[in-house]
UniProtKB/TrEMBL annotation:
<feature type="transmembrane region" description="Helical">
    <location>
        <begin position="237"/>
        <end position="260"/>
    </location>
</feature>
<dbReference type="GO" id="GO:0005886">
    <property type="term" value="C:plasma membrane"/>
</dbReference>
<feature type="transmembrane region" description="Helical">
    <location>
        <begin position="140"/>
        <end position="158"/>
    </location>
</feature>
<feature type="transmembrane region" description="Helical">
    <location>
        <begin position="98"/>
        <end position="120"/>
    </location>
</feature>
<keyword id="KW-0716">Sensory transduction</keyword>
<dbReference type="GO" id="GO:0004930">
    <property type="term" value="F:G protein-coupled receptor activity"/>
</dbReference>
<feature type="transmembrane region" description="Helical">
    <location>
        <begin position="59"/>
        <end position="78"/>
    </location>
</feature>
<keyword id="KW-0472">Membrane</keyword>
<keyword id="KW-0675">Receptor</keyword>
<keyword id="KW-1133">Transmembrane helix</keyword>
<feature type="transmembrane region" description="Helical">
    <location>
        <begin position="26"/>
        <end position="47"/>
    </location>
</feature>
<keyword id="KW-1003">Cell membrane</keyword>
<feature type="domain" description="G-protein coupled receptors family 1 profile">
    <location>
        <begin position="41"/>
        <end position="290"/>
    </location>
</feature>
<dbReference type="InterPro" id="IPR000725">
    <property type="entry name" value="Olfact_rcpt"/>
</dbReference>
<dbReference type="InterPro" id="IPR000276">
    <property type="entry name" value="GPCR_Rhodpsn"/>
</dbReference>
<keyword id="KW-0297">G-protein coupled receptor</keyword>
<feature type="transmembrane region" description="Helical">
    <location>
        <begin position="272"/>
        <end position="292"/>
    </location>
</feature>
């Protein structure tokens, strides 16, 4: 289907990874599996946090919010890609593309801010343990999430409005499996200088800002851990933030890797493949990182899954009574 000249365009074409029909079934099965694992894993983290009263703490409150955001983040792009593969169509409507881009920016920004908030939570827990519950009270935790959400919403709306002012001609092919902001802007036939300025300024403020906060928090955490005399005390203090540090490293390393690869190579398909790391792989691995390295989460998951399996024999036993 060839794009046509229109004053008001109605659709984009998402080229995805490959047009080879033999690879489409493999890609469909792979992404469907990763999406289901992502949703199920993060949903279990949320349910475990809600069901276990021992996990009703600021740390696990932020973790449950992060899991919810990860589900939403992947759900904005993967289902549409799977539908396109199944229907053998590359089309996404203009309004659908702008909406998808808006929500992707929203949840990506929330992911970024939540990682910084969780780093601050670990900083308070390790460096100011006696005042932890006073500082990280429920009202303050909700305020941190609310402020992060507002900033992310304003950013996504701003970028979407900046795209809406652009005019598009005939080159409406996006060499990605989702409506990525830079790719959509580059499809425009009008001047995009102002868009590029806003994109780079937002990247500096919204990416480097939280990263600086994370680095500052962990520099204080390391300094505090070094003052602990016993090796067991140092290990216990570090183990409380090891999972979060792993998630932070995975998130930022994959994002930096994607943008470095896009700067080095002009192959947009390669950039789309690299984007899978932070779009799909990172949200999928987060529940495993937190569950495998956290005894409280593992205990809560065992209790949650145990209750579900116990219900079946109890019901059967009641049914067989005379």
């Amino acid at each position: 289907m060839e794009p046509r000249n229109k004053t008001q365009i109605s659709e984009f074409l998402l080229l995805g990874f490959s047009e080879d029909p033999e690879l489409q079934h493999l890609i469909f099965g792979l992404f469907l599996s990763m999406y289901l694992v992502t949703v199920l894993g993060n949903l279990l983290i949320i349910l475990a946090t809600i069901s276990d009263s021992h996990l009703h703490t600021p740390m696990y409150f932020f973790l449950s919010i992060l899991s919810f955001v990860d589900i939403c983040f992947t759900s904005t792009s993967i289902p549409k890609m799977l539908v396109n593969i199944q229907t053998q169509s590359q089309v996404i409507t203009y309004s659908g593309c702008i909406t998808q881009m808006c929500f992707l920016l929203l949840f990506a920004g929330l992911d970024d801010f939540l990682l910084a908030v969780m780093a601050y939570d670990r900083f308070v827990a390790i460096c100011h343990p006696l005042h932890y519950m006073v500082i990280m009270n429920p009202r303050f935790c909700l305020l941190l999430v609310l402020v992060s959400s507002i900033i992310s919403i304003l950013h996504s709306i701003l970028q979407s409005l900046m795209v809406l002012r652009l005019s598009f001609c005939t080159d409406l092919e996006i060499p990605h499996f989702f409506c990525e902001l830079n790719q959509v802007v580059h499809c425009a036939c009008s001047d995009t200088f102002l868009n590029d300025v806003v994109i780079y300024l937002a990247a500096v403020l919204l990416a480097i800002g939280p990263l600086a906060g994370i680095l500052y928090s962990y520099s204080k955490i390391v300094s505090s851990i070094r003052t602990i005399s016993s090796a067991q005390g140092k290990y216990k203090a570090f183990s409380t933030c090891a999972s979060h540090l792993s998630v932070v490293s995975l998130f930022y390393c994959t994002c930096i890797g994607v943008y470095l690869s896009s700067a080095v190579t002009q192959n947009s398909r390669s950039t789309a493949t690299a984007s899978v790391m932070y779009m799909v792989v990172t949200p999928m691995l987060n529940p495993f990182i937190y569950s495998l390295r956290n005894k409280d989460i593992k205990s809560a998951l065992k209790a949650l899954l145990g209750r579900e399996t116990i219900k079946v024999p109890i019901v059967l036993r009641v049914k067989t009574c005379p």
